[in-house]
């Protein structure tokens, strides 16, 4: 049933990188389904790339979503970062953050324009876009809501470390040997931001891309610390995959050679290998990964492509990464090396996919969990190491291939070989699969009428349209 929303408009302000924009778009679709107009505000090149990539999402079905393509001047730091072939410098990354503040002025203009036709503007912004939304705080009839696209476990852990409080001591004490330090995951400049986020009072509430079945303890802990309401509206993924328990019941959303190949493989026989869009491995590490996959004797799909670039000028050119001589010929019968953008959700949903080796990214974790696919973790940066603890130590739906303590070391082929085999063929791996399947079933029940996630969504919609 549509909400009484004629006097409300929602403005989405994501951080302009794919891993942040995707959950924002899924949240936009969810809100717009209640007959609420949604304005999706981001850098134009990123908006276009997002729409190209989003699998199975016919945006024509959501006429209530309007995209606003903004631009910012390219800074010297951005250009240098785009030209850098090795791991990007943290100073360049922080300069990119600073350049985004220029989006504040057009955002204010959008709000003023919307207030000519509606009584209230609801801004939902990425937690790391605080500086961008500061200007709208003084505008009458504008409310702001923080949307955390990272896990509640990560946010709770970071706040705990920054404050030094003993409030959640019992919650984190058993995990203390495994939880990474803030300093090991983020540049020093981020400490000030985390403190600002923790103490931010210019908000009407907070949203998380998670649910009680996954992170109930941590959502409760954060709710106790906040004076404003908090909602867990996730997992925010394509709803097609939340509504069907079996792959055969889901429409085949895309046609891709990986799917055609999976159709010919036995159930749970293929490990999907992908490390997101934010980092590129060294050539030496790629060689070890290739040899490890080969020696594991397991079937695999390996996504091997350069990381996305920041800024306005997104390019779809994909440089070819060289592999060991003869590798592709030797594994041709049991492996696919994909150098293009693949339909990840469709791959994870396929019954032949039995495991996922990945960077412990939050979006990818949610997608894998919904599909009941166990994971092998290899955290790379920022929130990844925190998610790794949740996946392997709390939920126990995955095993560690590379632990964060040895993040600067090369992962040798034998370690990769053993991790892949353990996930795909061991009793421990099968137990992880069963736990993932049970969690998946619980979440799919929770999004139905009367379920906890459905109730959370209805509560949020009622709140913003009151």
TrEMBL record:
Record key words, sorted: Glycosyltransferase, Transferase
Keyword DNA repair part of the UniProt annotation: no
SUPFAM superfamilies for this protein: UDP-Glycosyltransferase/glycogen phosphorylase
Start and end residues of each Glycosyltransferase N-terminal domain: 7-237
CDD domains, A to Z: GT1_Gtf-like (cd03784)
Molecular-function GO terms, alphabetical: UDP-glucosyltransferase activity
One Gene Ontology term from the biological process aspect of the record: glycoside biosynthetic process
Xref: InterPro entries: Glyco_transf_N, UDP_glucos_trans
Superkingdom of this protein's organism: Eukaryota
Family that this chain belongs to: Belongs to the UDP-glycosyltransferase family.
Protein name: Zeatin O-xylosyltransferase-like
Classification of source organism: Eukaryota, Viridiplantae, Streptophyta, Embryophyta, Tracheophyta
């Amino acid at each position: 049933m549509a909400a009484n929303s004629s006097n409300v408009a929602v403005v989405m302000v994501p951080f302009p990188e794919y891993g942040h924009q995707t959950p924002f778009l899924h949240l936009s679709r969810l809100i717009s389904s209640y007959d609420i107009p949604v304005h999706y505000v981001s850098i134009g090149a990123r908006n276009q790339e997002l729409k190209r990539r989003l699998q199975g999402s016919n945006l024509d079905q959501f006429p209530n979503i309007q995209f606003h393509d903004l631009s910012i001047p390219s800074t010297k730091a951005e250009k240098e970062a785009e030209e850098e072939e090795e791991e990007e410098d943290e100073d360049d990354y922080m300069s990119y953050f600073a350049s985004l503040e220029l989006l504040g002025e057009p955002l204010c203009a959008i709000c003023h324009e919307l207030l000519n036709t509606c009584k209230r503007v609801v801004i939902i912004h990425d937690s790391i876009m605080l500086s961008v939304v500061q200007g709208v705080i003084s505008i009458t009839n504008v409310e702001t809501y923080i949307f955390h696209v990272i896990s509640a476990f990560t946010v709770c852990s970071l706040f705990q470390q920054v404050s030094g409080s003993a409030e959640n001591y019992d919650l984190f004490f058993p995990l203390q040997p495994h939880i990474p330090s803030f300093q090991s995951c983020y540049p020093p400049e981020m400490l000030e931001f985390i403190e600002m986020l923790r103490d931010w009072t210019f908000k009407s509430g907070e949203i998380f891309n998670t649910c009680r079945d996954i992170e109930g303890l941590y959502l409760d802990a954060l709710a106790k610390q906040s004076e404003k309401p908090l909602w867990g509206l996730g997992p925010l993924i394509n709803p097609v995959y939340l509504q069907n328990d079996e792959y055969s019941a889901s429409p085949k959303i895309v046609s891709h050679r990986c799917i055609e190949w999976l159709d010919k493989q036995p159930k749970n026989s293929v490990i999907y290998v992908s490390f997101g869009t934010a980092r590129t491995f060294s050539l030496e590490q790629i060689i070890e990964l290739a040899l490890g996959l080969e020696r594991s004797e397991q079937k695999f799909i390996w996504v091997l492509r350069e990381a996305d670039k920041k800024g306005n000028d997104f390019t779809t050119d994909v440089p070819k990464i060289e592999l060991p001589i003869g590798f592709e010929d030797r594994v041709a019968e049991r492996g696919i090396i994909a150098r293009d953008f693949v339909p990840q959700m469709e791959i994870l949903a396929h019954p032949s996919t039995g495991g996922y080796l990945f960077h412990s990214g939050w979006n990818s974790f949610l997608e894998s969990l919904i599909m009941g696919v166990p994971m092998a973790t290899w955290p790379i940066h920022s929130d990844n190491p925190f998610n790794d603890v949740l996946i392997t130590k709390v939920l126990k739906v995955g095993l560690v291939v590379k632990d964060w303590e040895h993040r600067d070391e090369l992962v040798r082929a034998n370690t990769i070989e053993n991790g892949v085999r353990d996930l795909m063929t061991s009793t421990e791996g099968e137990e992880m699969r069963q736990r993932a399947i049970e969690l998946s079933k619980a979440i799919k029940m929770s999004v139905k009428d009367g379920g906890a996630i459905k109730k959370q969504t209805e509560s949020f919609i009622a709140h913003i349209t009151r």
